[in-house]
Amino acid sequence: MRLCLGIESTAHTFGCGIVSFDGDIIANAKAQFVTDKGGLIPSEVARHHEEVKERVLKQALDAAKVTMADIELISYSAAPGLSPSLLVGLKFAQALANEHKKPLIGANHSVAHLTIGDLICKAKDPVYLYVSGPNTQVIAFAGKKYRIMGETLDVGLGNMFDKFAREIGLGFPGGPKIEKLAIGKYVELPYSVKGMDVSFAGMLTKALRFHKTGVSTDDLCYSLQETAFAMLAEIAERAMAHLDKFELLLIGGVAANKRLGNMLDDMCKARGAKFHAVPLEFSGDQGVMIAWQGVLQYVAGERLDVEQANIRPYERIDEVNVSWR
Ligand code: ATP
Ligand code: FE2
After folding, report:
1. For labelling alongside 161, which of 3, 116, 207, 218 has CA 20 to 30 A away?
2. pTM of the shown model
3. Pair 193, 175 in one domain
4. pLDDT for the residue numbered 35
5. Which domain holds residue 77?
6. Is the Cα torsion angle 215, 171, 179, 227 positive or negative in sign?
């Protein structure tokens, strides 16, 4: 079996994944830098990744019952992310490529989130709704690139949930806590859709003000979810309608939320479309998606000089040249 090792190190997760060139997932090992408050200090994250990298690689190889000799290709996350942690992945990948004489591919982490979703959900050409801590984007493949059709104009939805939860003392991360408490009745919060973009800052301010005036936490959690998710369903539906696409793929940490999944599923059913939610293990950061993205680029003919390999901390998804579609 032809195998690719993928190394993820854009942010809090250091991951090593192994996939076959046919798309079988063979191993998924990772270690996460965690804080109880959220937020990342780049140098601390990099130190964490340095400490765990050899162990995580060994875990992946052991789980796959292979050695580096059995790996045909190495792929690393070249973009986007925190420079110090991206550099740990780059240097590690370069050293492995040189030591074991393997070809190297650099992958864009955001694109890899989409392509692993396609692989796992067997999606062909979906509209993607990517909702994590910092990111809230509607993305679609159009005109040979992944295009951001709409996004948040201020805070990402996960971070908005986290901020609300922290301010009212629910702890971190806020999303899962808010989901558990979302059993109240509806109080009106600003519903803010501007074209294909959304905004969550006004909703956060209003909800915090309501909290001070004694509106119950259950009511606020319920109303935050209902309002924010309805906004996302609206822009996802508009993207599907404009682009004539009949699949929706949900990724990012907020994809764990059942109510969001149900609302999007209802919207898709109503328009004869198929809804896919990427399972949690593969919707968050991991090395498997970097491995699979490496396979796609390598099979499409991309080659990279190991010494020329770099990091691109600010590369956006629509800057990626899509060689594999
Ligand atoms: P990225 O991968 O885009 O850099 P990230 O690593 O911060 O972002 P994820 O790990 O994908 O993000 O997601 C974390 C976010 O998901 C947090 O903001 C958290 O509150 C939110 N989240 C997790 N579970 C749920 C849930 N059940 N409901 C709502 N939000 C959730
Ligand atoms: Fe990510």
Report:
1. 116
2. 0.95
3. yes
4. 80
5. 3-112+284-319
6. positive
